[in-house]
Every structure is written in C-alpha cells, then in structure tokens.
Write a structure and sequence with these properties.
single chain; alpha/beta; DNA polymerase, domain 1; Rossmann fold; Arc Repressor Mutant, subunit A; 9-stranded mixed beta sheet; 18 helices; 13% strand
Length: 367
C-alpha cells in the first residue's frame, strides 16, 4: 500500500475527519503507520475514541483505496494530497485542511487569486443578475471565481464566470461521482472541460447530506482571497461561509438589496457588522489592484501592435486610448462596443498595467 492509498483509506472512514487525521499523523508519522496501530495506541490520540479506533483497526472491511484510485483514474479525476505541488496553497495551511482532494478538471497557479461568490439557493431575478454581473467582471479581469455549484446564486456565479471566458471552481458537498444538484451536471462538465475544476474532499461515491455542506463551505472560504455574498436571508448557509472566511482573515463583501425583502436580510446584517458594501465588480478589483495576476510584474508595456494575446475588442479599446485621455463614453463611441463590455475591458487593462485611471473617471494608455 502506498502512502496516498493509506490517506484515502483514512479519509473514507466515517469517523475520521481532517482534524482527527492530522492529529493521528502528528502522533504516528505516516498514514500507513496509523493503519497498523493497536486500538489502545490510537485511543491515546485526542478525539479518537473506542469506535473510531475499532474502525481504523478494521479499515479493510470498510474501505478499498485501490478501487478508489482505479475509479478516479477511469473517470480522469486527479487525487491530491497536501504533499502534491498542485494542492491549493491557500488550503494547505488551514488547521482543518482536506487530507485528500479530488479534482475533476485542472488547477492552475492563477487560481490562487480568487474570489468566492455565495448566496441563497432561492434567488430572485435581482440576485441572479447581480451574481452573474459580479462573476463576469471578476473572472473577465483575471480572478478565479469559486462557488459551491449549488442551485441559485452559486449557479449564476459559475455561469457569469464562464460567460466572461474566465476560470471558475466548483466545490462540491458530495463526491464527484454524485454531482449535486443533478441538474448542474452539464454545468460541471463545462467547467471541467478547460474552464477550471470541480473539486471535493469526499470519497467519489459520497452522497450529500446536512454535514457535508458546511464542510464544503469552509473550503470555499479558505481558498478565496475574499468572499462576496450576493443575496441571502438572515438565516442562511452563506452566513456560515462568511463566518469561516472571517475566521480565516478574509475580506467580506456584500451586495445590498431592497430593504423590504427578506431575501437580502443576511447581506444587510453583514454590512451592519462591517462587511464592505459593493455594487460593482470594480470596487472589489480596486482592492486587488496591487496584484498583477494577468502578466508578470516586471513586464514592460509593449506597443499596441504586439498585443497578439488580446482580443480584437481589447485591442480596439487600447487604440482608442492611444492619443489623449478619454472618458468611458468617448471610448464607447470610438469602438462601438457595448458599455458593459468597455467597462470590463478597461478594468482588465488597468490590472494588466496597460491602462491608467485619471481623475474624473478618464482613462489613458500607459506608456
């Protein structure tokens, strides 16, 4: 048995969560060693009682790590442990970091720069459009959007990121062979097919339940550099995610809603408690302006004609700024592009150090 298979076995046991497994590893060194310990030795570890010790002793009756590895390989799913380079750095240092991470799709270094977007499953038209708008703006500017692939705001956030041709990551509260909700399977397939990844810490065949969703929420909170709550009532799982994010020292943003609708009560509570009120993605991007996550920090601006990695629309905006400084309306008039598209391109260009904002909301190309 390999060390990875031993970790998978521990992760498959129903009484050993990531904190308990971490304590076992600290006591016995390796997962293989844990599986060989006597019941009395195991019970000397904090949190390991007789039932947990018995299950660990009898792990072969309850788990089949070799079969799990084979199934993952068959379904093109990668299994990561904390020793792997591709394991998300933002999660590795958490005290309850996942011991095993199943990845469908691909993870990239740029996913370190990410914003979590969460909200209610029972969303309004206002919430859906707000989530799509923010996700489109953030993903279009180069940030990775992280959410839970749930119905409602999560779905809208993933869709907005995909519409911007950006990256998005869905964190499941179930195993990757039990995508929930089932109607989002097509969305999960699209994300995994070159637009990000679907991940889970649960064994492949795990069904969702009330315990798995809060566990999923902590991953969204810890992975994200900041968390945006779009729409949720005063009693909502999204507030659990916000609490996890606060404990991890993450910045919390909240979108205000109509004051007479309980659907936004949770967002208003967060704002009263100190979350930053936002109405546009540019307000979040402003806080990320010190991060150059699209191009290397030492890269000098290049002549316009050399920007072969930009879209025709992006090049059109740069050319519109090649003379004197321009207002947004002037750029729109020169390019004939929709207003929302020009706004997103200008934010993206500013983060790439190609465009500079001047007083009076005017823009100029950096020299």
């Amino acid at each position: 048995m390999t060390e990875v298979e031993a970790l998978i076995a521990l992760n498959q046991l129903p009484v050993t969560g990531p904190v308990k497994i971490r304590r076992l590893l600290e006591s016995f060194g390796t997962a293989e060693s844990v599986l060989k310990q006597s019941s009395s030795s195991l019970q000397r570890v904090q949190g390991i009682g007789p039932e947990a010790a018995k299950l660990i002793n009898e792990w072969q009756d309850h788990t089949d790590p070799a079969a799990e590895v084979a199934l993952a390989r068959e379904r093109n799913i990668q299994i990561l442990t904390q020793e792997d380079e591709d394991y998300p750095a933002a999660l590795r240092d958490a005290f309850d970091a996942p011991v095993v991470l199943y990845v469908w799709g691909d993870l990239q270094e740029k996913d370190l720069h990410s914003v979590g977007i969460v909200g209610s499953r029972k969303l309004t038209h206002y919430g859906r459009e707000a989530a799509r708008k923010f996700a489109f703006q953030l993903a279009g500017a180069g940030l990775t959007v992280i959410s839970g692939l749930a119905r409602g705001i999560d779905t809208a956030a993933h869709e907005g990121a995909l519409a911007a041709k950006g990256r998005t990551i869905g964190v499941l509260g179930s195993g990757l062979m039990q995508v929930y909700p089932p109607e989002n399977l097509a969305l999960a397939e699209k994300i995994a097919d070159g637009h990000g990844a679907i991940i889970s810490e649960f064994p492949l065949q795990t069904s969702p339940d009330r315990k798995t969703f809060p566990q999923r929420n902590r991953i969204v909170a810890h992975w994200s550099r900041a968390l945006l709550v779009v729409e949720c009532p005063s009693r909502s799982g999204s507030l659990i995610t916000a609490n996890f994010a606060l404990e991890a020292g993450r910045q919390i943003y909240a979108v205000p809603g109509p004051i007479d609708r309980p659907t936004s009560g949770g967002c208003h509570d967060l704002i009263r408690e100190g979350a930053t009120l936002v109405t546009d993605g540019s307000q979040i991007l402003e806080d990320f302006s010190h991060l150059n996550f699209s191009t290397p920090s030492d890269e000098e601006p290049r002549p316009i004609e050399n920007f072969v990695d930009l879209s025709p629309e992006e090049n059109a905006v740069l050319k519109a700024l090649s003379g004197s400084d321009q207002s947004v309306d002037e750029v729109i008039e020169k390019t004939s592009l929709p207003a929302h598209q020009v706004s997103v391109i200008l934010m993206k260009m500013e983060l790439r150090k190609l465009v500079q904002t001047l007083p009076g909301q005017r823009f100029t190309r950096k020299r």
